[in-house]
Amino acid sequence: MSTAEERADSDLQSWAEVTPDAARRLLLAAVEAFAERGYHATTTRDIASRAGMSPAALYIHYKTKEELLHRISRIGHEKALEILRTAARREGSATERLADAVSSFVRWHARGRTTARVVQYELDSLGPDARAEILALRRQVDAEVRGIIEEGAASGEFDVLDVQGTTLAVLSLCIDVARWFNVDGPRTPEEIGELYADLVLRMVGAKKAGHGVGKAEGQGRIPVDGPGPRGR
Amino acid sequence: MSTAEERADSDLQSWAEVTPDAARRLLLAAVEAFAERGYHATTTRDIASRAGMSPAALYIHYKTKEELLHRISRIGHEKALEILRTAARREGSATERLADAVSSFVRWHARGRTTARVVQYELDSLGPDARAEILALRRQVDAEVRGIIEEGAASGEFDVLDVQGTTLAVLSLCIDVARWFNVDGPRTPEEIGELYADLVLRMVGAKKAGHGVGKAEGQGRIPVDGPGPRGR
DNA sequence: GGGGACGCTAAGCGCCCGCTCATCCTCGGC
DNA sequence: GCCGAGGATGAGCGGGCGCTTAGCGTCCCC
């Protein structure tokens, strides 16, 4: 179901491209802190101390606190785009590719909830230039999903009235997983990925839905909504 | 440009229950500020000046900044619950009631995006007691939607594998509207409500979907996702 | 028309913020 | 054995934070 590598960090994000080591530790600490308390509520002192360094050390590797957010956001969006591209461009019917795209995108949001929260919800905290750059990536994300839905609609595989609106809803559904997913909850990222892929295929009117998905039934309550972090 | 009071109308939230007048103006100013910049990034000086008062005036009507957020959150959740209850308890088939619940819930999130953002995304900023109170309201919100889906599933009107998971997804889809909806975008809250009601009926496998919804087709692009505020 | 209650403000308290800087430690090259 | 470069630090800057307090005007009640 998942490789050892994927399970290695609860976050399945490698961050290997960030060097040197101290810079990566600071970035990781910032992801955690931003996800828990939000960008504006996080202090540079908090980030530095999570990384086991003095407050001033941060400024050797990053010009400002915002640069940290920018780097996290770009790397995260690139990873999200890569996941969707891989699913969109594999072989198979539009149904198979859409199910793959949704389930892997959802798994990423659930498993890497910490990163995904920062990536998806702190966009407004970026300055205008950085935000424009990230928005360009988001447009590509949108285009990948829209592409699959368009193909399915064109071939008659799907039954969709409003392609752009449906695309928006599908992405919205996946992204919001980062808000409510609880690591201690009753569902695994894989289960949610499967459930969501089935729901999305129904949304686009795919001819044959997820056939015998089974097993998803009757597994107790989920804690409503409880937006999760804070604990520490 | 316009006062907080004037802009609040676009919000369809009355706030009439908040008295005296100065306390209501402060609350409205806080809603705006929290929605734009987030609770932690909003200063009491900003709230007071938006309400046309001195910084100290805030503390005549509210003990702390957090009390403002608590009041906003409780009033908002009560309104959300009222909307869903009204839809859930009217006469009609489960299909009709679910469509009504979704479309009116979505309209509230789109029209009152400012309020809804604070209500749905600033839960973590509350202290433990206040948050526990709000979470109880959220459990009731969840129960209303789950109730409709259960009835539809029991009567054979719907085809649902995982009632709780589907409930979660439906609520998630509606709530996330507050994140991406753009007042200047191409879609009206009513159009999104209709689209989403149709999508949700498909998700639960309702026998007859939204029949000839029509008109939703081909109305140009939406601006990807752009999470909006910040403008000022 | 005197007096207290109320709504509000100017001033400011103690604290912590993002960020800087002079200094120090460590380590590879010669 | 000495030196320079770069990573890391303790101290601290200017400023803004949430919130308090002393006092002022404006009403209502008698």
SSE order and pairing:
The structure is a homodimer of 232-residue chains.
Chain A: H1 4-8, H2 21-37, H3 44-50, H4 58-61, H5 65-89, H6 94-111, H7 113-121, H8 128-154, H9 163-175, H10 177-180, H11 189-203
Helix pairs in contact in A: 2-3, 2-5, 2-7, 5-6, 5-7, 5-8, 6-7, 6-8, 6-9, 6-11, 8-9
Chain A binds a DNA duplex (30 and 30 nucleotides) through helix 4.
Strand content of chain A: under 5%
Q: What overall form of chain A do the CA principal axes indicate?
A: elongated
Helix content of chain A: 55-70%
Instruction: Report the total helices of chain A.
Output: 11
Give the N-to-C terminal Cα separation of chain A.
29 Å
Most extensive chain contact? A-B, 51 and 52 residues
Q: What oligomeric assembly is this protein in?
A: homodimer
List the helices and strands of chain A in order. HHHHHHHHHHH
**Main sheet characteristics of chain A:** none
CATH architecture of the domain at 3-14 and 67-203 in chain A: Orthogonal Bundle
Q: Strand pairing plus helix content of chain A: what structural class? A: mainly alpha
Q: How confident overall, as mean pLDDT of chain A? A: 87
Which CATH class of the domain at 3-14 and 67-203 in chain A is shown? Mainly Alpha
Q: What is the gyration radius of chain A calculated from CA atoms? A: 19 Å
Number of strands of chain A: 0
Q: CATH topology of the domain at 3-14 and 67-203 in chain A, which one?
A: Tetracycline Repressor, domain 2
CATH superfamily of the domain at 3-14 and 67-203 in chain A: Tetracycline Repressor, domain 2
Low-confidence stretches of chain A: 1-10, 210-223, 226-232
